[in-house]
Amino acid sequence: MSKAMIFWACAALLLMAAEMVVPGAFLLWLGFAAAGTFVLVWLLPLAPVWQALVFVVLSLVSIGVYLQFFRRMQKASDRPLLNRRGEQMVGRVLELDTAIVDGRGRVKIGDAFWTVQGTDLPVGSKVRVVAIDSMTLKVDPAD
Fold first, then answer.
1. Cβ-Cβ contacts under 8 Å for 98 (sequence gap 6 or more)
2. Are residues 101 and 63 in the same domain?
3. What is the predicted pLDDT for the residue at 85?
4. Angle 22-23-24 from CA coordinates, rounded to 5°
5. What does the alpha-carbon distance between residue 102 and residue 107 come to, in Å, rounded to a whole number?
6. Residue 114 in 3-state DSSP?
7. What are residue 105's DSSP bridge partners?
8. Is the dihedral of CA 141, 121, 130, 84 positive or negative?
9. What is the pLDDT along the chain (143 residues), one digit of tens a residue?
10. What is the domain-level CATH number for residue 99?
């Protein structure tokens, strides 16, 4: 077994193992490309430059296969806002805990205080969350 074959076999195994540690379905396909390069080097002794070129081409092909076929099959989540706490607030009507002065105020949601941005309103006014910008809720007066 040549050094090149050992290199490509190790690269394939390491890339596939790294996919388990850092999931994202990207390293797996590079691992497949490295395995394909291993098989090609086993069948045809290639110069290192050609080996690298084969790996690049197989990487592009394998990632293209993933994007074309497998990524399309992923089902849309039934809870797309899970772990997007701020975006879950859009549309909610809340009561101001601190008056909005100079465009900034505060509301209490559960046990957390959120900064709000909108037109000046007194404490206790009802506001509707219309958007979120980082950790600031953008609000309008509720009807």
1. 105, 106, 107, 123
2. no
3. 65
4. 120
5. 15
6. strand
7. 116
8. negative
9. 788 889 989 999 999 998 888 876 678 889 999 999 999 999 988 898 999 999 999 999 998 888 887 766 666 656 655 556 667 778 889 999 999 999 999 999 888 898 999 999 999 999 999 988 888 899 999 87
10. 2.40.50.140
Which domain does 136 fall in, by range? 85-141
Residue-wise burial string across 119-134, b where 16 or more C-beta atoms lie within 10 A, e elsewhere: eebeeebebbbeebee
What's the residue count for the chain?
A: 143
Scanning the structure block, which residue is given the tokens 């050609």? 50
Domain shared by 30 and 89, yes or no: no
In a domain, 77, yes or no: no
Distance of CA 55 to the CA centre of its chain: 26
Radius of gyration (C-alpha) of the chain in whole angstroms:
27
Residues 65 and 89 in one domain: no
| Amino acid identity, position 99 | A
Q: Are 54 and 9 found together in one domain? A: yes
SS3 content of the chain, % helix, strand, coil (to 5): 45, 25, 30
Global pTM reads: 0.51
Type of residue at 137: L
- Runs of H (alpha helix) within the chain: 3-21, 27-43, 48-65, 85-88
